[in-house]
Request: fold
Amino acid sequence: MTTSNTRTSIEQFVDALATATAKVLSERPPSKWTVKLDDSKTPFAPGSQLMTLLLVAEPSKAEAAIQINLESTLVLAAALTGANIPASQLKPEHAQVVRTALAKACDTAAQLLQTQVQLQPSKGIPWTTAQQFSMTATDGAAAKVQIQVLFTADWPKAALNPAATISRAATGKTVNVALLEGVELHVALRFGQRQLTLQEIGELRSGSLVELDKLVHDPAELLLGDRVIARGEVVVIDGDYGLRITEVL
Reply:
């Protein structure tokens, strides 16, 4: 048996992904899904129509992939929308529902590794697979889904942390800031801002509306003190607000 001290980051992620996927699929009553890792790899049959989603780790850009076949995509789309979807009527919006659910599960699982991930549609896998895992999801009734998770050898840590060492060109010295990485800093999420006069502030009451300077689809900002350090889109993770980073400044 592999202990928690010897499990690789990939094994920890896959375990967390199975748990998170079951939770996401079970959000629509009365479904109660379970997701288990298969003891052996069960590849898809040759010629299967597959949905391939690249799982890109940030900031390293290392890639993994999730694959499900057409039959599983239909089952998941039906479970997530509550509609019976024949194979001939699978539409892009149905596939998007499945991608959104898997992205939510991946976001939750990636928190264990203290990293962020982006799930992107792809026509195939542009690299050689180093590790492969098979998962089976069932709803306790007739629904059954097979999911393949494939990894490169260096996922999710392909790139060095650029903040680990700061060079001082003028002196030729370097400062190792790794010693400071455990220091906690307060960051804030800003949806927008607005300047108000003192009179307008004094007129605020319960139910008052304050219009911000951002449109609904504009990126939210992550602030460290008064400095914007990143932008992204607001998401909901287990009932809490979160930020999916799209730009680091």
Q: What stands out?
A: Residues 184-248 form a domain with the Surface presentation of antigens (SPOA) fold (CATH 2.30.330.10). Helices lie at 9-25, 70-81, 92-110, 198-202. The first strand starts at residue 34 and ends at 37. The first helix runs from residue 9 to 25.
